[in-house]
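Structural prep section.
Before we set up the soaks we want a predicted structure of the protein with zinc ion in place, mainly to decide which crystallisation condition to try first. Input record follows.
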Amino acid sequence: MKPVAAIFRLREDQAVEMSKLRVFMRRMFAAWLCLILPSACSVNPRFLLPIASDQKLEAFLAEEGARLLLVSENAHIPMRYNFYLVKFAREDILGLSLGGHDIFISYELTRRAYTQQGYRWLFRHTLAHEIAHDVLGHAGMTHEPTFNANSITGSDLGLLGPAVFYNYSRTFELAADRKALEYWQRIGWDCRIWIAILENFLAQNYLGDAAHPTEERLRQAIEVCNSADRPAAADGRAPLTN
Ligand SMILES: [Zn+2]
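Run finished without errors. Recording the tokens verbatim:
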């Protein structure tokens, strides 16, 4: 983890430093607020996430998010959405949706997606999934928790302070996948790429967890993909994901 002193080190791009300083101060204020008012953090922990600042990547993220919003049920309110880059503590956490039209995407994934086509599809997969959670209103709905020994915790996210984080159920995760695939198809992105991403997870022995079972997600994606019209890849095969 970067030492606090490094945040104050002067660099050539002072605007970036000031932005980091603002993020740092906001997090310190939020941590203080949590100490005196814990309920505030359990309601709205987004202020405690390790938000990263990078103008180029933020613009890229917002642009890609806007493409998906345009084909979503919330196409009429894109201005209400905010997209954030986050340096999640656990590296396999790629995105997060807490409701309120705030979408959080891994800084590292976004950085790679900016220059590497393979990662761009994984990035679009993640972004569509998180937007789908928001559009479907999952954060504000009650649901049966899925028992999950590998649940994501506040410290996995890098949350600062005593914030509480609740995982979505498997039902919600699969619903978000299905909705996200609809968005992909409306844009014209080949759903076989989505399938290839999940197949790649399995090939790497990444089985997911109880709420994100890779095999079930793959089965659903194949079902959705097979039932839809899709653009033909130039060589008849889905491009590789990485
Ligand atoms: Zn999800």
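Observations: The first strand starts at residue 51 and ends at 52.
Flagged for discussion at group meeting.
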